[in-house]
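Here we describe the complex-level prediction in full. Unlike the single-chain runs in Section 2.1, the two entities below were treated as one system.
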Amino acid sequence: MVSAFKKALESGKFVVTCEAAPPKGTNLDRMAHDIELLKDKVDGINVTDHQSSVMRFPSLGGALLVKELGGEPILQMTCRDRNRLALQADLLFASYKGIHNVLCLTGDSIMLGDHKEAKSVFDLDSSQLVAVVRTLEEGKDTSGNDLDGGVSFCAGAIVTPEATPLEPQLIKFEKKIEAGAEFIQTQAVFDLDRFKEFMEYARQFQVKILAGIILLTSAPMARFMNKNIAGVFVPQDLIDEMASAPKGQALAKGIEIAGRMIRRIQEEKMCDGVHIMAIGKEDLVPEIMSVAGLI
Amino acid sequence: MIRSITQLKSEEEIDRLLEGLMRVFIVGCGTCVTLTHTGGEPEVTAMNESLSKKGKLITGQTVVPVACDNLTSDMLGEFGPQMDQSDALLIMTCAFGVQTIARQLKKMVVPALDTLFIGKETGPGEFNEVCIQCGTCIIGETGGICPVTSCHKGLVNGPCGGTDNGKCEIDRRKDCVWTMIYNRLLDLGRLDSMRIIQPPRNHLGEPTPGKMILPEA
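The structure predicted for the assembly as a whole is:
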């Protein structure tokens, strides 16, 4: 079973993915609305897994919703909340239910979220989780026992191309590829010249790279990310550009910047596609894609 | 020398634990808790004063040399009657001391401290955990620096994406151990060992509860 997302990656087209965040609670109306809006415009919808360690409706349930509504889900799985038994079980269930894309993440610290006193697991790390996906596909569990009925996944992971120091991240990036990652989503990139340098290095590997694009919503938001989000660096000229937007027009400026960046990435064939993170404003993704000339 | 690193419990919690226990004997320790100023002579005396003001009757206090060693008969002889008169012993030592004392005396024990980790004084007033006793040591491949202990997530294959400028995602005062390991292996010309893919950790290495019986010689 080759997933539609994997087919898109292999087709050579410029791939676009986005996110859908499950709610805190069981009211899926807004998420369903976003999925309906996005499902025919993008190649895959990432469903986040207790993003920022905030307890929510599960990513597996969200991915099922994407599937039910006719979209292509990419199941985000972190290693923070489940041990290897639970992760494998969820992978079996996902594959059985027709969810055939998985993004393997270490996961934010529990201390960043809303259940700070909870026990964090990290029985596996992100590169080991990629390897687990490949082991299950071979018909075995991680203890070497035979599976009755197999799984099939397009497995991916992430990298932070603007981390300081960079080399430790790249060593881990290479481990993820060696473990069997087929695609890599990057942390948000803003300085595309620096991103091109990363891609000159990354091109040597047999892996598809999707550049992470975060929608800037205001100059203070950009400054906040610079201060608080590891590996995210919004250059001063972009902050100035955001700040120059007339009152009430900052978001429109952010859409323009995101669209412009995507257009440049595609025109210069920097990488294989983009992963758009609109963080709570997923309904604006079509507009960003329109500015980028993708739809 | 490895040390037991402790922190005083909140006043509310100590008050709750001592509720209904009117006569209290206080025990400190001359070793780790003296170093961390959590259960040495001054702290024991301060606790005595504080509890006295709240109306407790303090039957006595002492600071034993090493609370995780068995109590000597001298000590029991000297303070035995005062301990006997108490409703409970308030123990200002690490959990090892509390348990060692509890094992030897038929007395209710109340810990006044929480034991945070087993670590080492790495600078004046600075303590760091050095080993979590995982039972499957990998520091031969990480330049002698332990990521299982010193990475917040215990990651064995390299840093997470939360690290920034060599600092940890959860606390900018904490170093990212994977940056330290990287720098050290780079210095030693052994960066290749960071490229070794470490398998998932074997948690059988750490017996729960820890118990070992040496085979007979």
